[in-house]
Each structure stands twice: as C-alpha cells, then as structure tokens.
Amino acid sequence: MELYIKGINTISPVGSFDNIDNLPEIKATEEGLKYYSCIEPLAYKEIINPVLIRRMSRAMKIGIASALFCLKDAKLEMPDAIITGTGLGCVEDSDKFLVSLIENEEKMLNPTPFIQSTHNTISSQIALMLKCHGYNSTYAGRGACFETGILDASMLISDGEASNVLVGAYDELIQNQIKILYRLGQFRNNNTIKNISGNLPGEGAAFFVLSDKQSDTDYAKLVGMDIISSDNFLTENICDFLNKYSIELKNINSILLGSENFILENSKYSDVINIFPYSNLLWFKHLCGEYMTDSSFALWLASNILKTQNIPEKVIIKKNNTSALDNILIVNKISGNQTALFLLKK
Amino acid sequence: MDELIEKLKIEIIEALSLEEITPADIDADAPLFLDGLGLDSIDALELIVLIEKKYGYKIQTAEEGKTVLYSVKSMAEFITNRQKL
C-alpha cells in the first residue's frame, strides 16, 4: 500500500488544524451528560444546493460538506471512486423514523427520514451532486468501517481500477444516543482531568483524496494500514506491521494514540508505549471525542502534522524525539479488541 | 377556504422544511411541482402524509394525487369537498 494523500478535510468539534490550540467546548445535555459536537460551516448554502439542504440531517451536511471541501483541497473535480465508512449512519433520521413509527402506530410515516436513514445516503448523494458514475461503496462495520474503506481504496488503486479515490467517514451524535451510551456505561462523566477528556462521546466527518501519483503538494504518504483483531500479542503485531514496511521501532518519530487521556500509566496503551521509548507520544480524542470512525480524525491530524511539520502543543503527551518529523504511527483501539494501525510518511 | 389556504401554506413550509419561503411567497394557484415551488416526488409523498395526518383524508389513486397536489388551492378544495360529505 502506497497511497498519496492529495487532499483532506474534516468537520469536527475542534474545527480546523489552525484552531487546535483552542480545545473544543465540552457540551452537556439537559441531564448533564457531557459530549463534543462539531463546529459546522456557516455557509453550507455556498457549497450545497439549498433545495437539497432543506432535507438534510446534520450527518448529511457535515459528510457532504467535508467531501466537497476535500475535493476542493485536492483540486480534483471528479474522483474515480467514492468510498465512505460510518459506524451508525444517519442516526438523526433513523431516530425520527423510529419515533414516528411508534407515535403513529406504524401508520402515516413521513418518507424523508426513512429514505435518508440508510447508511449509504451520503456516498450516493455525493455521487449525485458530482454526477460521478464510478465505483461507490459504503462500509458500516461499526468500529472498523473507515479502515475497511481505506483498504478498499488501496485495492482499487493497486488493481489499477482507480487513480484518485475520495474516501471518508462520518458519524453524528444525537441526544438519545448520548443517553444510551452513558446508560450502557461506555462513557463516564466524572473522568475529565483539568476539564480535558478523550472519553466523551463525539462526532465528525473527515474525507481524503487518495491517489497513486505522487506530487509536491501531497500531505503525506499512507504507507500501511492494518486492523489487529485481538489485544493478545498487540505489541508483537505492531512489530510485525512495522517489519513489513522495513521500519524499526526506534525510527518511529511519533505515535498518535487513541488514548482517553494524557495519563498513560496503567492505560490500555501502556504496553504499546513501552515499545516506543524514543517516539513522541501524541493523542487526539480530546479534540473530537470518541466515535466509531474517529480514526479518520486521527488520519486527518497526522496528515496535517506531516505536511506542516508542526506538532501542536495540545496534542503532545510526551516529547521524546527531536529528529526529523518524517513518519507517524497511528494506534487507535477502535471497538472491542480491535486496534487500527496507520503508518504515514512525509 | 382562504383561511384553509393560509393554514396549508404554513403546514407545507413546515413539513417540507422550506426555510427561506414565507406563506406570502406561495401563490395558491401556482403549480407546486416543477415550475412553482420546484417540489419533487419525495415532497409529494410528504404532502400525501400531511393531508392524511392533519385532515384525515386519504388520496386514493395516483391520478387523484396529480389533481389534488397541483396547487395549494387544489389541496384546499379537496379538503373542503371532503369536509362537506
């Protein structure tokens, strides 16, 4: 896998890369349950037809806007393929549809939320807007869906079926979902440290143009990606992954961890950091919260860091390495015992 | 009838999320689809649900739907005629 990242965009709780030093606002529901929500673009109507916007849920707006901004960033009018990943799809529309189903005793249901509640709404809407007749696919495998989308893009490119692929992910957060996530014990409200936490529900959309052709304006090169499906032998699996790309552990400049906070002792990443004593330790979940496709935010962040050669202060847990910033390894525990690995090079 | 037309305009704006349109912008006689408000087939389904939910009258056939959903006035006429039965 050697994919060149030509364009990127995210709509996230932290907004733009320049804004990272201003940590996102932690919001709370009426019951006091904390969460992060996206900073949305003010002028959707400048990029999306107003006739279409009136029906769109927030997931659709952030997903489509992020995809269109990404294409603009890559200076690409028409991708060869469109691939999206989403953990739960358009939850707001699913919520509306199901509530209406109950309230109206399964009669007189409004069609719009039902039509738009499907997971592939966004990739198909992007294709319709661009008039893109190429390959179009959506992965909805909860935790690993964005990673599966990247894998699909890499196979399309390596098989010569596509040269430029628009690949991205989106997940929105709604009030009912926040309550359910807390009720299930997935988040704990009292674990913010100095009012910073990566263990809060979040949301976001991030898109990338991946290409087989290198250019001077690329953000980074995605060298490898893997999904490790068990916590057993995780460190061994990481070593094998790096061996595959002929990189030694000591040569990894920075690792970007999906850690819930900046205290790593006795965390689920303890074993991982032990094998990287010479690498900078970075984290990202305090910028976007935790959601099923948050690896896409990590990939956006790492791409920006490599292109700008600047690691924002707010993402540094520990600085161990002062050598040239030429690679980043993303290690993100995505769901259950699965861990996603992304290796990026300058 | 005029009162019903004004009420329908407000309900249509709300049901179809026509955020930048006011009741005054809607010509009661103008076609709702294509030339007029530029509504489409999904909107047609929403309007059928609106009439059934708010007024309790069901549009029975596609042909009837074309006549009833032609304009706000034709929708009001359909509801008024049913109320008289």
- N to C succession of SSEs of chain A: EEEHHEHHHEHEHEEHEHEHHEEE
**What's the story with the biggest beta sheet of chain B?**
none
What is the fold named in CATH at topology level of the largest domain in chain A? Answer: Peroxisomal Thiolase, Chain A, domain 1
CATH class of chain B, named Mainly Alpha
Helix content of chain B: 55-70%
Describe this structure in words.
The complex is a heterodimer of chains A (346) and B (85). By secondary structure, chain A is an alpha/beta fold. Chain A has helices at residues 50-53, 58-74, 91-103, 111-116, 121-130, 145-158, 175-183, 234-244, 270-274, 285-288, 295-308; strands at 3-11, 27-28, 34-35, 81-85, 135-139, 164-171, 204-211, 220-228, 254-257, 280-283, 316-318, 327-335, 338-345. Chain A has an 11-stranded mixed β-sheet with strand order 5-4-6-7-1-8-13-12-9-10-11, with helices on both faces. In chain A, strand 9, helix 9 (270-274) and strand 10 form a beta-alpha-beta unit. Chain A starts with a strand and ends with a strand. Chain B has one domain: Non-ribosomal Peptide Synthetase Peptidyl Carrier Protein, Chain A. Chain B starts with a helix and ends with a helix. In chain B, 24% of the residues are buried.
Please name the defining characteristics of this protein.
heterodimer, A: 346 residues, alpha/beta, Peroxisomal Thiolase, Chain A, domain 1, 2 domains, 13 strands, B: mainly alpha, Non-ribosomal Peptide Synthetase Peptidyl Carrier Protein, Chain A, 0% strand
Q: Can you summarize this structure?
A:
The complex is a heterodimer of chains A (346) and B (85). Chain A is of the alpha/beta class and 346 residues long. Chain A has 11 helices and 13 strands.
